[in-house]
Amino acid sequence: MAVDHTRPVAGLRLHALDAEDLPMLSAHVQDALLRVGDIAFLPEKRRFAIALSRFDWAAEADGRLERASAGLHFEGVRAARCLNIDQARKDGLLSLLAVAFEPGPTPPEGRIQLIFAGGATISLEVECIEAQLCDLGPRWPATARPSHHLDEGAMRGS
User: Fold this and answer.
1) pLDDT of 118-141, one tens digit each?
2) 91: CB partners within 8 A, 6+ apart
3) Omega of the bond prior to 108 within 30 degrees of 0, cis?
4) What is the mean pLDDT of the chain?
5) Could you read off the pLDDT of 56-101 as tens digits, one per residue?
6) Which of 78, 104, 129, 156 has its CA 20 to 30 A from that of 66?
7) What are φ and ψ of residue 63, in 5° steps?
8) What is the pTM of this model?
9) Distances in Å between the alpha carbon of 12 and those of 55, 107, 123, 127, 158?
10) How would you label 129-141 residue by residue, b for 16+ Cβ within 10 Å and e otherwise?
């Protein structure tokens, strides 16, 4: 299916300001692809940002397989830690599975977890939840619908 890049596209714009908002944002970035080089932590601005290619699950519900260029950023970030991500490999590709929040000892602070396929994680220590997801530009046909295969052992918890 061809996508007409000349037509204006109503871009997605979501804000998450509390733990109830975050699952909706997480659903829209599930299976987003990003390069390690497109991750930025700006400690002086307390901002963490990533550019990503998100699979458009809403378009898929209408029978279209599309990806969209998008940006995701978090404000009030005190620290960012990466686990199982080779930051020297700027062309390394990551597949984002979920965004989760763990409350801290003094609300509204806590930890936002960006969970990637293959066991990679980015942990953000935040003053509060303040996130924004925005489509930034072009859309294009996706070659396939993302899927996740769980083996039977994982389903049984063994």
Assistant:
1) 999 999 999 999 999 999 988 999
2) 35, 36, 37
3) yes
4) 89
5) 998 988 999 999 999 999 999 999 999 999 999 999 999 999 999 9
6) 129
7) 90, 10
8) 0.86
9) 12, 29, 25, 25, 39
10) bbbbbebeeebee
